[in-house]
Structures are given as C-alpha cells and as structure tokens.
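Weekly modeling sync, notes
Attendees: AB, CL, MP (scribe)

Item 1: holo prediction request
CL wants a bound-state model with cytidine-5'-diphosphate before deciding which constructs to order. AB pointed out that an apo prediction alone won't tell us much about the pocket. Agreed to run with the ligand included and paste results into these notes for async review.

Input as submitted:
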Amino acid sequence: MNETPSQSPSIIAIDGPAASGKSTIGLRLAEALGYIFFDTGVMYRAVTWLALERGIDVHDEAAVTALAEEMHIDVAPASKSDGRACDVLVDGRDITWETRGRKVDANVSIVAAYRGVRRALSQQQRRVGQRGKIVMVGRDIGTVVLPDADLKIYLDATAEERARRRYDEIVARGGSTDYDAILKRVIERDRIDSTRDVAPLKAADDAVVLDSDKLTADEVFEQILALVK
Ligand code: CDP
C-alpha cells in the first residue's frame, strides 16, 4: 500500500494567557517553516492605544466599537531589528512600541471584551488566516477565529513565571520596571480574558496543551516543532 507523505499543518493556532511566550515561539516557528506570523493581540492593543490617544473612555463600549470598525490597522513583518516581532501601523503611523506600554497593558482586556470590537477584528484575522501557511497567536484563534486550524497549541505557565519572563524582556530592552506590578497586571488581564462572555480565553478541546513552566524557550520550540513534523 502506498503511503501518502504527511503534510505539515498549514494553519497553526497558538493560544494562551498573557506573556506565555506565544509571540516568541510563534515567530520562531513561522520563520522555521517559511510561514507568515500573525500576532492578533497587537490589533486589540492598537484599538486600545488609539482610544487612549483620542481621549475616548475605554468603558464607553459604543465609542470604542465605532473606533475599531473605522480605524485601519496594518500588521506587517518587522522593518527594524529592535526586538519587535512585527510592525504595527495605525493610519500609516508606526505605533509598535506604543502598544506595549503600561497604559495599553492595563486597558486592553477591557477593550477586548467588547463584542463589536471582537467581531471587527476577528473578521480581518480570519480573512488573513484562511490563506494558510500561517502561525496565528492570540486567545481565541483555535476556538473562534480559526476553529478548523490544522494544529492547535495552548501554551500555558504559572502567572509568576510569565511575569518573570515579561520582566526579563523589558529589562533586556533597557527599560525599567517593577515585577510585582507586572504580576498584578498579568493576573488581572487573565481574569478578564477568561471570564468575558465573548470568546473567552480557554484551550480548544482539540488543542495540545503545553505547560512551559519548567521548559526553556528552546525546549518549547523543539516540542512544538515535533508536533508539526
Ligand atoms: O503579549 P501578551 O500575551 O501580553 O498579550 P497580547 O497577546 O498582546 O494580547 C493583549 C490582549 O489582547 C489580551 O490580554 C486580550 O485581552 C486581547 N486579545 C484577545 O482578546 N484575543 C486575541 N486573539 C488576542 C489578544
């Protein structure tokens, strides 16, 4: 009997809580496979940044939703090697680092819980994802955006470990920060993300759950690569 050669999964979804390493691993995996890397979190961050920039109250669901529906967000491959995984442009302006700021971090989960915001952004994400040869990372990729993804991974770790990694990342970039404040924000974001009504953070039934607490980034990468090949 002839054996059909197994094919690499074309659509790979990586979901998980805040700072679980999805972007680092996702980018590395996409580069190894020659796939597109798409970090969907940056879109929610871009909407939050623009709302704050324009003085819109993030608790005003109608105003934030209208903004998400009308604004133009571009997510493009990184144009600079300054630690970014991709470029984030809003109406042509590069806001990549602005979206990583403390204020966006503290407000993004409020914005991401709005049904209309999610509808606007997930439609765009689905359109890109369905073209295939993509590694897409977020909270609801395997459950809502691309439920037919060929491979779904749920990357987890304790809040303490994730906060430590985010702390190291910021310090490595030359920034100054406070571990306890990061831990608090990580826990609060997870709470809002996993208890919201629309597309809450959870592992898809058919996802491979990877607990990365005791693993290095290289080990996580190797384990995921083994699932792909
Ligand atoms: O990089 P980090 O894990 O800290 O966060 P992110 O992936 O940039 O996502 C920022 C926020 O956007 C999350 O806390 C969620 O509130 C929201 N998000 C979402 O709701 N759905 C997604 N597919 C991606 C992000």
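Recorded for review: The longest helix spans residues 179-195.
Action items: CL to compare against the apo run; MP to circulate these notes.
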